[in-house]
Specification:
There is one protein chain. This protein is of the alpha/beta class. It has three domains: 1-79 and 151-223, P-loop containing nucleotide triphosphate hydrolases (Rossmann fold); 89-149; 225-265. It has helices at residues 43-50, 74-79, 95-105, 111-119, 135-147, 165-180, 192-198, 216-222, 247-255, 269-277; strands at 5-14, 17-27, 32-36, 58-63, 66-67, 80-83, 153-157, 184-189, 201-206, 209-214, 227-232, 237-241, 259-264. The strands form three sheets. Strands 6-7-8-3-9-10 form a six-stranded mixed beta sheet, with helices on both faces. The mean pLDDT is 93. Bound molecules: adenosine-5'-diphosphate (ADP) and magnesium ion. Adenosine-5'-diphosphate binds at residues 14-15, 19, 37, 39-45. It holds the Pfam family ABC_tran.
Length: 282
């Protein structure tokens, strides 16, 4: 398999409005790939098409070497994990019994339940009825559900949007571990810090098209002014261009013990997105 996901010329029209106009990208095996965009930019629609929940209007889509017309098969569904807006739990069952049902559905060993509960930091909620859980806790049970059958590829639609920073960080570590063990991850988010911390490559989605694509580091370098921001102990802030003629200036500042901090001017992914699209990612 060359690419885990291949999307070519994808288009999706709802009631004569193109939510996705012409989108192409691929995801490599073992990558964490982030689809970033503001609300309404088509992230969820893309995930729904990639997981067979929605059909496309035009374009070629294949996932794990399976063409989109076979996304409904049990074999395909057992190879992917999904956490989306409409993932749901049985409210009147306990956390454990919910996960047990999904284990049985996918023929996964029941020992996986406690492994997953540990991963999502929910061991203490094992015997609680789902209706009594907070939104953030339910989100973590849904994540455990999406991963319980050890899929090769997982789709996560804004997985940490309902979580506090502590739990989000815990989930990030869990996803990194999962990825190190070989799972490919496709994640949508409007949280730029999350994307920067997690993703090998990101695509910026806006107006139904991919506006920019690359690794966070490559993009931050590409949109950098390549200047140094120097803060002195006198609270002066200097912007010094990265040119050979300025080497002595920087050397002198450091030699005189004047430099409190020095930083290269790499913009954040959020600043780059704003520059390209004129939109904040909220
Ligand atoms: N089932 C649907 N019927 C009609 N329009 C839809 C439907 N689903 C999504 N849309 C529209 O498609 C666009 C993209 O939505 P969505 O994929 O949910 O964006 P995001 O997940 O980036 O917030 C929005 O304008 C939304 O209103
Ligand atoms: Mg969405």
């Amino acid at each position: 398999m060359k690419h885990t996901i291949e999307v070519n010329g994808l288009r999706k029209v709802f009631d004569q409005n193109a939510a996705i106009k012409d989108v192409s990208f691929f995801v490599k095996p073992g990558e964490i790939f982030g689809l970033l965009g503001p609300s309404g930019s088509g992230k969820t629609t893309t995930i729904k098409i990639l997981t067979g929940e929605l059909g496309q209007t035009a374009g070629d889509v294949s996932v794990l070497d399976v063409n989109s017309h076979l996304f409904g098969t049990a074999d395909f569904r057992s190879r992917i994990g999904i956490l989306s807006d409409n993932s749901s739990l049985y409210e009147r069952l306990t956390v454990y019994d919910n996960l047990k049902l999904f284990c049985q559905l996918y023929d996964a060993p029941l020992e996986q339940i406690d492994v997953m509960l540990d991963e999502v930091n929910l061991k203490e909620a094992r015997s609680k009825v789902v209706s009594k859980l907070s939104k953030g806790m339910k989100q973590r049970v849904l994540l455990a559900k999406a991963l319980i059958h050890k899929p090769e590829l997982v789709f996560l639609d804004e997985p940490t949007s309902a979580l506090d920073p502590g739990n989000a960080a815990h989930i990030h570590r869990g996803l990194q571990k999962l990825n190190e063990a070989g799972t490919t991850i496709f994640i949508t988010t409007h949280d730029m810090e999350e994307a920067t911390a997690l993703c090998d490559r990101v695509a910026f989605l806006d107006k139904g098209e991919v506006q920019e694509l690359g690794s966070p580091d490559t993009l931050r370098y590409k949109y950098s002014t390549h200047a140094f921001h120097v803060e002195t102990f006198e609270d002066e802030r200097l912007v010094i261009e990265n040119e050979s003629g300025n080497a002595d200036k920087i050397r002198e500042l450091i030699a005189n013990g004047e430099v409190k901090s020095i930083q290269s001017d790499n913009p954040t992914l959020g600043q780059i997105f704003l520059k390209i699209t004129g939109k904040e990612l909220v």
